[in-house]
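Input.
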Amino acid sequence: MPSDSTSKLEEPFAALSLSENIGAGLPSSQSTRRPSRTLSGSKDKVASQPSAHLISLLRECGQTSPYSFNAFVETFPSDNIHESHALEPLTFRKIGEASFSEVFAIGNIVLKVIPLRDESASTRPFDGDVDLPQESESKDVLQEMIVTRTLGQACRGFVKLLKTYIVVGEYPSLLLSLWDEFNDKKLSENIRPDVFPSSQAYALMVLPNGGSDLETYTFPPKVGWQQACSVFWQTAKALALAEDLVSFEHRDLHWGQILIKAVGSTRKAPRTSQRGRRRSNSGDIAMDHPSHGVVTTIIDLGLARMDAVDPSGISVHWTPLDELIFQGEGDYQFDVYRMMKQVHGNRWDKYRPLTNVMWLHYLSLKLIRAKRLRAPNLRGVTAVSNEFGEKSCYECLVEMEALLGSSIRDKTKRGGAIKGFFQNARDVVNFAQERGWLHR
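Output.
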């Protein structure tokens, strides 16, 4: 089941330093700035034998049994994952939600809370008129953990998975009060999670925090097109590298899944020749460079597909898409889902990187049409020192939107590859390098 197909974040997480997943048997980050409490004590563990459907998740998280949800919330603020000079105690806050999860933040850390379906029960715990929040199957969450950890470690531009936990128990009253505050301000689209029973299990994904998602990020007027172009090319390069390494498809890369962290700009004008044309020199600043003022991070790999090497050979990590996702209307996002199905059929285990091209086309349209950026004045000649300024970046995005759209239409309507058009994100990045927009 899709875990975050309608993500809505106020201040989501961007990439910080990596603290390895404890499920992989690697050490977590250490800190000497604050006393540390951990959840390894027996008083924090649930005594009963874990359900069979949780065994694989527990193994991935490095646990033998679930922790108490309330004990986790009580002790996590003093966990050594937090690296801060702040003297005041860290406190939780709710920053967002998605169809299958609630998202809380504490310090520079995000906590994604995913309710797990009780696969040992024949029915859900409540019947009748009581609605329950969406729950995820354990195997789907396990896939998300594995893919997120792998891509975060291997590819720049993907969110890094810091830690994972399995917890059981009543939803903590602190988090419920924060849920209520968020609902009063934002009007939550989810059901209040207090309806879950005390036996409910949850998966917790601990991720870095920072920045805003593309949907809520505001581009500054003077350099808006430069930043928008940087967002596009940073995203494209991350997808291309993931394709090269693990035959990756994201399959759900809407604008709630692309995070933007504003950074200080140190951008200088590119050097030019006497004829006023940009030199092809590695010292020039490419369109994707963070000095344009933004760093982009791809999140939410719940529907992603990748190859992985395990002891038995090559395996494929993928999650089937719920049929409801193909019935959406009102945004090009839902057309992309249907085009993906047209390319894949029902063989979602297969590698079809054209889906990454589809999402890049979607991204180009959002940047051009949905971010309230004014088209620059295209009359006259742009100053040589401003070659990668507003005009050139705007024209780049417009050109890419047309080329990406043609690639998709030719493939989906004719059913075959058309020479010269993009078949994957790597083709897109290679084209940009040939044009001098990106460095090789």
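The two ends are 38 Å apart (CA to CA).
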